[in-house]
Specification:
The chain has about 350 residues and is α/β, with parallel strands linked by helices. It is built from eleven helices and twelve strands.
Length: about 350
């Protein structure tokens, strides 16, 4: 299988590429990434000479480039490419609409055209395995939950931020291409990921790296916003199952059974690092801050047999240790010294 991975130099994308190359010897990866602030080729330094990994520096909004990649032959697509930081979307939503909506449309157009040219008249005979388009989305498209219940695949979309609104729009486009063009699309919606190589503006790496530097740890509001935490390796295993066994036109929620308040997470990190809670600083809450997310992953468990292997306690401890052992990686990013190959 020749797999196109977009956004493969980012946090989840780079972890997925590393995972799928090890798990599936028959898979080769074309990695398309624009290398924005969160895309970093250092995330893939160990794969620089891998014979089944080819990196292309480019933008998913570039129709010519995307069409050229498909013309070389693509068996499946996993779209990680996205602007994803909520705070940045509040300041300026334009890059989020451009990448998350228009970029997804460009990929869908190219996939639909490729589908028609390659598979019309063949699919019924089963001559080749059809391309699968996996749109990687987020639980944030559902909006905020009350103190009870969990999001299911049937939950209404009620995005609260420009970021989550752009992801909801991309999801609806993907489903529309399935219904209109017959493109075999699958949507995944995951809870908050954590693990190695996460850009240090996100909650867990920000708190770990700030604590390691004995700097204040900023916590929004009262710190009681609840998130369901999913280790990135568990997410990668789920995506592998969706890629090979997911049903076209379906949505799969991927949750880690790891609900914690932000304040609990911060205190756990401080305890693991033997740092004082006096480093915590409560700051003004951000606009539209969803109070609680929680995912019901029973559908992917029932249909594909997936369940998380990492408990939050074990996964967080391993993540803290990774950042402790890879200080040069995050120090270069936080200092602005990291440079991307162009």
């Amino acid at each position: 299988m020749k797999l196109l991975v977009t956004g493969g130099a980012g946090f989840i994308g780079s972890n997925f590429i590393r995972y799928i190359l090890a798990a599936r010897p028959g898979v080769s990866v074309i990695n398309l990434d624009k290398l924005t602030y969160a895309g970093n080729l250092e995330n893939l330094a160990d794969l620089a000479d891998h014979p089944r990994h080819a990196f292309i520096h480019g933008d998913i909004c570039d129709r010519r480039l995307v069409g050229e990649i498909f013309s070389r032959g693509v068996d499946a697509v996993i779209n990680f490419a996205a602007e994803s930081h909520v705070d940045r979307s509040i300041v300026d939503a334009s890059p989020f609409v451009e990448t998350n909506v228009r970029g997804t449309q460009v990929l869908l157009d190219a996939a639909a055209e490729y589908w028609r040219e390659r598979f019309d008249g063949q699919a019924a005979a089963g001559a080749e395995r059809p391309v699968i388009f996996v749109q990687v989305s987020t639980d944030e498209v559902y909006g905020s939950l009350g103190p009870e219940g969990r999001f299911t695949e049937e939950s209404p979309l009620k995005p609260s931020s420009p970021y989550s609104a752009s992801k909801a729009a991309a999801d609806l486009l993907a489903l529309a291409y399935h219904r209109t063009h017959g493109l075999p699309v699958v949507i995944t919606r995951c809870s908050n990921n954590y693990g190695p190589y996460q850009f240090p503006e996100k909650l867990i790496p920000l708190m770990i790296t700030s604590a390691l530097e004995d700097k204040p740890l900023p916590v929004y509001g009262d710190g009681l916003n609840v998130r369901d935490w999913l280790h990135v390796e568990d997410h990668c295993r789920a995506l592998e199952l969706v890629l090979f066994r997911g049903r076209p036109g379906e949505i799969y929620n991927i949750g880690g059974h790891g609900e914690r308040t932000n304040l609990e997470v911060v205190r756990m990190i401080l305890q693991l690092l033997d740092k004082p809670e006096s480093l915590i600083r409560f700051v003004k809450d951000r606009p539209g801050h969803d109070r609680r997310y929680a995912i019901d992953p029973s559908k992917i468990t029932r249909e594909l047999g997936w369940r998380p292997r990492h408990t939050f306690e074990e996964g967080l401890a391993a993540t803290v240790e990774w950042y402790r052992q890879n200080r040069s990686w995050w120090e270069r990013i936080k200092s602005g010294a990291a440079r991307h190959c162009r």
